[in-house]
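hiii, so i know i said id send this last week but things got crazy w the move. better late than never?? heres the sequnce for the chain we talked about at the cafe, plus the structure i predicted for it. fair warning i was half asleep when i ran it
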Amino acid sequence: MPQSATSTLVLLSACVMAAGMMPACTPGKSHDVVSSSLSFRANKEHTGDYASEAGGLFDTLVWRIHTGGKIFGSPAISKGRLFVGSEEGRLIAVDLAGGRIAWTFPTGGPIPSSPAVFDDMVFFLSYDGTFYGVDVITGRLKWKFQTGGEKRVGAKGLWTMQPRSEYMDDPFDFFLSSPAIDEAGGIVYFGSGDGNVYALHAGDGRLVWKFQTQGIVHTSPALYRGKLYIGSWDRNLYALDAATGAEKWKFETGRDTAQHLLEGIQSSATASDGKIYFGSRDGYFYALDAETGKMAWKYPANNSWILTTAAVRQDTLYLGTSDTYRMIALNAATGKELYQVQASGYVYSSPSLAGHNAYFGDFTGRLFAADITAAGRVVDSFSTPGRLEHASTVLKNGKIDFAWLVPGMDLSYYASTVAGMNRLYTLGPILSSPVISGGVLYFGSGDSCLYAMKLKHPF
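okay and structure toks below
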């Protein structure tokens, strides 16, 4: 059952604001026009293009709310209300006009799944192994569906780290699958840690079909021209018939038999202009023919994982890389690199487009606005309070350096990776893909805060 805003005000207390910003949870002005972003990456094709929004530079922080847990997923917006999950295990509904909590819905596990809204219900997956349909107005449960269980990727001696006999969760397995919705058919689709892709009736949660892969599925399905496109940790990108779940084709990405480090699909697919675009942990970004699965081209990312979901506008793709700390623009037809934007840490926040700008965050708690009409020139940036406070001691020359993070520790040990990640979390990393609605940019952070940033047009 949902909990009221009043009963959770202590838990969902406002963060202390950075100097010069508005006080936390200060009511913002209502916007005359508030557009909707009903699902992950703005639409079921995952294009990440908020075409009706003018974009702009960062103006003032309208509000910021502490949720009690890290936010890895991205918000969904509908009818003046925002929905987002947190690692604390609650789905949170926020009224945009004043930044007030409308309701929270508790689950039995973290919620790194980005919710989707359809027919006055919000849908999301929790690590408690349950997919939920919740009333957007009241926050009351409409129905729930039990998967075979959600779990993180992991192995004994992960990536040959020590001690080899210890089971280790992958510390970079951040997300759960986010739903895609076929509005015409009233069907909701998502992937699961049990290896299945599910199709459910949106109205009551009844199973329509399920498709078994050979690995954990933490990517989010793209729905395009009657097919569902989704990647699995079994290294395959699948094209499934959206009506029946029948496999139409699959495409296999690279295998790393030595360390199992450079393999697996964590990036969700983007569909546009007859092609399917996605990245892999094998260090490549791929373009496939949507009908046949035949590879059109692949882009080598210097052995860097690609976890982000690409944004696309006209003939250009925008994606983020892991170890090279970049947002990269590619020609969508040929895969030719057009330019790079250098960040300070891992880019796991999928770029979002509005006006002239691409917006994305990095793992050091920095949010970027890059002008895509000027070869990606960074025109503005925003730092989380954690970054402002801790960057001088956590970062080396302003960038992530793991040896610097854990001085004196043996990097071959899993404990060193965990210790380094815990230090990075003090920066307030931004993994959430920004959502732009009504001239305001919304995103979550690893500092457990949800941000609403007003945009101003520079012209």
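btw Residues 1-35 have pLDDT under 50 and may be disordered. thought thatd interest u
miss u guys!!
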